[in-house]
Design a protein that fits this description.
Protein name: Ring-1,2-phenylacetyl-CoA epoxidase subunit PaaC
CATH architecture: Up-down Bundle
Shape: globular
Number of domains: 1
Strand content: under 5%
Largest sheet: none
CATH superfamily: Ferritin, core subunit, four-helix bundle
Order of helices and strands: HHHHHHHHHHHH
Structural class: mainly alpha
Length: about 300
């Protein structure tokens, strides 16, 4: 009987018979052909840490959004939320790859197989205290209204940062930002349309939207507080000091909430950036358990 090639055989043959890692990307270098030289006068450790901040925010929020797959209120929205998550996952891959090229791997490489790409080692083999994501993206979804309010806030902040990062002295960050602004503009506008629809809809949808706003607003406490790394890189022309985007973000969010007939809560007092320092609540460890579980059980698996 003739051998029937399976899809796995075909994939393996496409790479010369060399097994590919089963759980991550494992196909090509996302930064192939890109100059990854660290700009003059910039500490590679700082650059890597900053890319972790941006990459972790994208990765964690993408994982939160995928929790709505099969649970969104309508099929079209399920596809939209899934596509937004994929956009963020693409940003995360590039940013974590950049962090790896700057030498930031640490314990993640010790836990992973040597054949696993840097971005996958960072995504799958770091513990919660090694993640540099904010509490804004790590918080549980809540109901659909709260999820869309959080997406509106997170996308508005990220879009303001990426718009400025297009002028970064680091060519990789500038390229990621130039592509990402188009994606993030869609994310922000999609979420804004839903917040308008819910806030100015039925009494119940209005109540839920306002409850979502009230729950998300305290999570902004440390979003605009720069870390030492961000401050140093901002002076070097590589990063964006989050404090500089605050007025823009406040203006956009206030405009959307006003049109949605929703009350704008008082802005929380600035707090130290706990998430950027690796201080997280148990919700992040729980989320990472789902994201990383299979890869950690079979760290050397190939197909």
């Amino acid at each position: 009987m003739a051998h029937e090639e399976t899809v796995y055989d075909a994939l393996d043959s496409a790479h010369g018979g060399e097994g590919q890692w089963a759980f991550g990307t494992g196909f090509d270098d996302p930064l192939a052909g890109v100059d990854t030289t660290v700009p003059d006068g910039v500490d590679p450790a700082d650059l890597g840490a900053y890319c972790l901040m941006l990459g972790d925010d994208a990765l964690v929020l993408a994982q939160r959004l995928t929790q709505w797959v099969t649970a969104a209120p309508e099929l079209e929205e399920e596809v939209a939320v899934g596509n937004i998550a994929l956009d963020l996952l693409g940003q995360a891959r590039l940013l974590l790859a950049r962090a790896g090229s700057a030498g930031v791997l640490g314990r993640s490489r010790e836990r992973a197989s040597a054949t696993i790409p840097d971005e996958d080692a960072l995504a799958y083999f770091r513990d919660a205290d090694e993640f540099r994501s904010t509490g804004l993206v790590a918080a549980p979804n809540g109901d659909f209204a709260r999820t869309l309010v959080r997406l509106l806030v997170a996308a508005t902040v990220r879009l303001a940062v990426f718009a400025r990062l297009r002028e970064s002295r680091d060519p990789v960050l500038a390229a990621v930002a130039a592509k990402g602004v188009h994606e993030l503009a869609y994310h922000r506008d999609h979420a804004a349309r839903w917040v308008l629809r819910l806030g100015d809809g039925t009494p119940e949808s209005h109540r839920r939207a306002q409850a979502g706003v009230d729950a998300v607003w305290p999570l902004l406490a440390d979003v605009f507080s720069p870390t030492d790394v961000e401050s140093r890189l901002a002076v070097a022309g590589v990063a964006v000091d989050p404090a500089t985007v605050r007025d823009e973000v406040v203006g956009v969010l206030t405009q959307v909430l006003d049109r949605a007939t929703l009350r704008v809560p008082g802005w929380p007092a600035d707090a130290p950036p706990r998430g950027r320092a690796g201080a997280h609540g148990p919700e992040l460890a729980e989320l990472l358990g789902t994201l990383q579980g299979l890869a950690r059980q079979h760290p050397a698996a190939t197909w």
